[in-house]
Amino acid sequence: MTGVSAAVTLHGVTKAFPLGNGRTLEALNVQRWAVPAGRCTVLTGPSGSGKTTLLNLIAGVSLPTAGTVAVHDTEISALPEPQRDRFRAKHIGYVFQTFNLLSAFTALENVMLSMMFAGAIPNEQRRRAGEILARLGLGARLAHKPHQLSRGEQQRVAIARALANHPPLILADEPCASLDASTAREVLDELLSVCREAGTTLLVVSHESSVLAAGDQVVDITAINRAKHRVSVAERV
């Protein structure tokens, strides 16, 4: 995509997990990859091929074994943990496959908490949280806790939480996987609509045909991940 700047760049990124007894499993090996800014990129590939691992590295939830991960020219992989957390809160929205809503809090409070971590003032937290939830069709469900919401409604709350701080980058891990086809289409349309209006970069992990069709580009992780999920023995000093 000539002329389009990159929202995310990875250089020489590997991720290996310890298995014990000096053995490691290489899950990810991406020598170079860039996610174009302001577009919807769909990342697909077989189960266990490293898609969620890659999202977690981009979000700074985990760190690479080697290499650099940059989000809008900030090398998030080099930041100390407190700075990574602050950067993520302000610049990255993450829609988890399992929603990760706090059960003791209402829909409104779940979204407000994400804004609190980003440093928004209390009045702005409530106003913006209510506004984005209403935009996603949950204006009458603000006081409901997760167990009082359908799965589709819970996913909308998770999306609202990711969008609340106007982040330039949204990561979504299988956002439609646990939803029926009709609800999945509605949730996807809402997510795409909000992101495209704001010019937000959207990176979605999915194998759903409707999501693949909606992306500006589709990338199979097997084309960029050189890891063969090899088990190796770590050198011992």
Description:
It contains seven helices and ten strands. It is an alpha/beta fold and 237 residues long. The protein has a single domain (36-223), classed as 3-Layer(aba) Sandwich (Rossmann fold), CATH 3.40.50. It has a five-stranded antiparallel beta sheet with strand order 5-4-1-2-10. It has a five-stranded parallel beta sheet with strand order 6-7-8-3-9, with helices on both faces. The chain is globular and about 55 Å long.
Give me the secondary-structure topology.
Layout: E1 6-20, E2 23-36, E3 40-44, H1 51-59, E4 66-71, E5 74-75, H2 81-91, E6 92-95, H3 107-117, H4 122-135, H5 151-163, E7 169-173, H6 181-198, E8 201-205, H7 209-214, E9 217-220, E10 231-233
Parallel strand pairs: 3-8, 3-9, 6-7, 7-8
Antiparallel strand pairs: 1-2, 1-4, 2-10, 4-5
Helix pairs in contact: 3-4, 3-5, 5-6
